Structures are given as C-alpha cells and as structure tokens.
Sequence to fold (209 residues):
Amino acid sequence: GSASATSQTETGLCTRLCAWLCALLVPGGRGAGAVRELLSDSRQVGQMLLRFALTAGWAPWMIALPPHLTHEYSLSTAAIGLRLSVMTLVGFSSSPICGHLADRFGCDGVARCGAIFSAIALGLLPFSGGLGGVWALLAVWELGTAAISAATNAAASESTPCELRGVQSSLLGQVQDGTFVLMPTALGFLAASIGTTATLGLTAVVQLA
Fold:
C-alpha cells in the first residue's frame, strides 16, 4: 500500500544519492565535472524534462485518480485496482512497438508525442462521459507513457558517452524520485482543496509545460 510506495521512494532516493556522491567522490572519477557536462547538454536536459513528464503522469494514479473514480463512478478499491492493472497491460504490450517506432522515426520525436498524448488523455479524464471513455483515455495514457519510456531510454544510450552513462542514469533517477517526492504531496493538497477533477487537469498542464 502507501507504506510500501513510501519505502520504495525512500530507497530509490538513497540509491540515487549514493550513486551521485560516488560520482563526485570516487578517486579518478570525473566527479562534478561529469554532472556539469551532462547538464550543459540540451539533449540531456530534454531527456530529464521528459522523465519528469513521465513521472508527473504516474503520480495521479496514486493520489487523484482512485478517489475520482470512487466519487464519480462508485467503484470499490478492489475494482479500481483490478482495472488499473488491466490498463497497465496496455503499456506492457505496446512497449516493443514504441521501441520500434523510436528506432525508425527518432527517439526525441516519439518521446515528445508520447508526452503530449499522455498529458491530453489525463486532462480529458474528467470529461470522458462514462467508464468506457475513462478506460479508453487511460489506454491512450498508457501508450503515451510507453512511448516516453522506450524513447528516452534509447536516447540515453544513443547520446551519452559510455564513461558518463552511470552518472546520466543517476541524474534521470533523481529527476524521477524527486518528482515522486513533490507530486504526491502537491496533488493530495490540491485534491483536498479544489477537487480531483481540477487536479487531474492541472497535472496535465504541468506535463505539457
């Protein structure tokens, strides 16, 4: 449950922090220079922003989407969990296709298209008109996130020198974990203040930004 998710987030943060410190402190390593080199590369920064968009889209699944489905459609917790698991199979099955598209049409373009589609699907959820529309939009969201994930992973290997891939992986992980630190708290506050419908819309805007 939530305790397990919190534990995983804390573990991930500790792992990324240790990796980053090792990059800085290990004798003979490039240290802070490697981090600065990556952050000065616009393509690397773009990958970090896409990882942020990917993670920002995951956060509502934990905070805003379940209470929205309960309030609007009277679904039980078990029913929500089952349906979200089924939706995840869409991403699982579409990942190889998204990887092929990234190879054929370019990683950056596929990742950006995935970010746009997933954000639009998330923003339209409150206006789906019924459960059928909800599941269709969630399927689009899964396709979008699969495209972001496959394309950014491929782009990282393609654009990062071998000697910087460990640091680059650590930075992407820090972006992901840092987003998970901030987004659940922010979304929880927003959902309590303005409702889940507006919160889902704001999350979509954050992704697109």
